[in-house]
Amino acid sequence: MHTSFTGPPAADTHPTPATAEELERHKAAITRLGNELRALVEAAVRTAATPDTLHRVAEGVRHVTGQLTGRRRARADIPEVDEFPAGTRIYSPVTGAGSPLAPPLRVTPTDDGLIGHCTLGIAHEGPPGYGHGGMSAMLLDELMGRACAAAGAPGLTISLQMRYHRPVPLETPLRILARVTGTDHRKSFVTGSITTEADPATDLVTAEGVFVAPDPRRVRALFPGLTADGDPAGG
Ligand SMILES: CCCCCCCCCCCC(=O)SCCNC(=O)CCNC(=O)[C@H](O)C(C)(C)COP(=O)(O)OP(=O)(O)OC[C@H]1O[C@@H](n2cnc3c(N)ncnc32)[C@H](O)[C@@H]1OP(=O)(O)O
């Protein structure tokens, strides 16, 4: 089990979860906080509250933030609830239930790749009422990278070619697909697309990417939180 937190224990924290049940409890708590944070972010970018109210809320948020800064994981640590690189990434800005940045994208396998489902909010806006192009790239980069991992060749993006055919509507259920189309040594070639759930025949965004499984001699340096066999470090 990976011990992901460092620094002195604080009085308001609990010991690192060790059992599967405790890990599930920890995941549920992280997810609950993520849900509340996403609601806060969406409310913050939508509100028409007065400056006085915004100042008052900002004070409250500052107080809340102060409750989470006592005990932190180090930058490259892999959270113990994660299954890196192919499974749960609980703080991923794309799929992470615990990240206020993530829609979050829910990923399931298909016959030949992966499918993701999410709905973008006003916090992800580019053109008024539509998704930011960088969000589309982030959704596709993540799902295409996960498709490589699901195919047994986890890798990092070395190129991502985006094509924006039509704007991506906000507050509309989306369907994202990713599929590995070929491999060449450590390289995987991957395609992806974004459509709405309601009209899966109309591509809004498509992408072609190349992902490279890092040279095994470089993996340790790139990801110090992993052991040589690819499992999270820490016993
Ligand atoms: C455990 C996994 C966890 C995987 C964890 C997955 C998390 C998914 C996250 C979502 C996806 C991301 O955001 S990924 C983050 C964005 N991407 C990155 O930061 C990657 C930055 N790039 C790198 O660090 C490096 O290029 C690596 C590690 C990917 C590859 O380095 P390497 O292992 O030393 O490999 P190297 O021998 O140089 O290259 C192998 C082949 O790929 C080609 N190649 C390498 N880099 C490039 C490049 N930038 N542009 C063009 N081609 C390139 C080389 O020419 C060579 O082709 P040939 O001569 O054999 O033909």
UniProtKB/TrEMBL annotation:
It is found in: Cell projection, Ruffle membrane; Cytoplasm; Membrane. Its EC number is 3.1.2.2. The keyword Cytoplasm applies. Residues 129-197 form the Thioesterase domain. It is a peripheral membrane protein. The keyword Electron transport does not apply. InterPro entries: HotDog_dom_sf, THEM4/THEM5_acyl-CoA_thioest, Thioestr_dom. Keywords: Apoptosis, Cell membrane, Cell projection, Cytoplasm, Fatty acid metabolism, Hydrolase, Lipid metabolism, Membrane, Transit peptide. It catalyses: octanoyl-CoA + H2O = octanoate + CoA + H(+); tetradecanoyl-CoA + H2O = tetradecanoate + CoA + H(+); decanoyl-CoA + H2O = decanoate + CoA + H(+); dodecanoyl-CoA + H2O = dodecanoate + CoA + H(+). This is Acyl-coenzyme A thioesterase THEM4. The lineage of its organism: Bacteria, Bacillati, Actinomycetota, Actinomycetes, Kitasatosporales.
